[in-house]
Design goal:
This protein has about 325 residues and is of the alpha/beta class. The chain has helices spanning about 20-25, 30-40, 65-80, 105-115, 130-145, 215-240, 255-265, 275-280, 285-295; strands at about 5-10, 15-20, 40-45, 90-95, 120-125, 145-155, 175-185, 190-195, 205, 215, 245-250, 305-310, 315-325. The strands form four sheets. Strands 1-7-6-4-5 form a five-stranded mixed beta sheet, with helices on both faces. The chain starts with a strand and ends in a 7-residue tail after the last strand. Bound molecules: oxa(dethia)-CoA (UT7). Oxa(dethia)-CoA binds next to helix 2 and helix 6.
Amino acid sequence: MTGVTITGWGTALPEQVVTNEDITTLFDTSDEWIFERSGIRSRRTATGPFVKPPPPVDPPANGLGTTGTLAAEAGRKALEMAGVAPEQVRLVIVCTTTPDQLIPANSASVAAALGIRSGAMDLNAACAGFTYGLVTASGLVAAGAERVLLIGAETLSRATNWNDRTNAFLFGDGAGAVLVEAVPGEGSLLAWDLGVDGNLVPLLYAQHGSGMVMRGQEVFRRAVLATVDSATASLERAKLTIDDIALFVPHQANIRIIEAAASRLKLPPERIASVIQRTGNTSSASIPLALIDAIENGRVHDGDHLLLAGFGAGMTWASAVWRWQDPPGR
Ligand code: UT7
């Protein structure tokens, strides 16, 4: 069995910072209410009411205005850091729930931007997408793929109903990428859990051409349960306990969901990775953004056990126990 490790990483965020004060110009709300209910102070947006000049149209423009350009920028940084040439990558997986177009997959333009020709596909498991992608990439490496570039990228600003005060303040745009490479032995992925309950589609969805619809309280309640149950299943499969976990890297949907799940898992606040205050909910991008922020702030050390856990529309959920290995030379 071939194991996997992460040898490079990178992020990309659009330039436009949208503060809660900005959001108050759209509908009746306040910075205090948004922060208290969600833990969010600001988010980055590539499109939407605060982006000037107006949102890019097809064909996608340059800059960081699309899911594809954000993904390519994050992916380019990950390859650069790993010192890996595009022709050494066997597959690009772009995890996204907001692709730039219906056909073809977003990963095609990302592969073209990066000079990769060996294979590309999109993966949509909503906010659980990156963890689904990590498990998929690891399986493909075990099957001989050697190097998979895994990217979580979103422009949720395009799927947001900016007139809906019950959820428009939650979402943001961005991308995070990791290069997943083969290593001899067990590698970093010690255990994982994936799940879906498709009967819960009506809780959170967006139809073609219209914004997101969400039953916030119900999603909140189920998100806490799904995160805790899935994380517990992964820990059991890894034969570890919560005390073995150095850092919890949850999906960044709402700080209250993160804290409620952490408290049920008996994880103290200092072992939680969070960027939600300045990114909002970036769906597939949120776990890599939180993970990479923690790495770059010296919170992740060689041999640490990380617990990744996400949930999202579908509803989907996913978790993984990952034993961090510092890449050579770091
Ligand atoms: O990635 C996965 C997807 N999404 C999520 O994980 C989100 C899950 N849900 C949540 O995070 C929370 O449900 C929200 C942050 C969306 C909302 O927080 P809440 O504590 O569930 O608030 P609520 O919907 O129960 O609303 C409380 C009150 C209501 O007023 P009444 O009926 O109590 O008088 C709302 O009308 O707050 C009102 N309200 C607002 N007030 C100020 C709703 N939106 C706003 C707003 N500003 N933007």
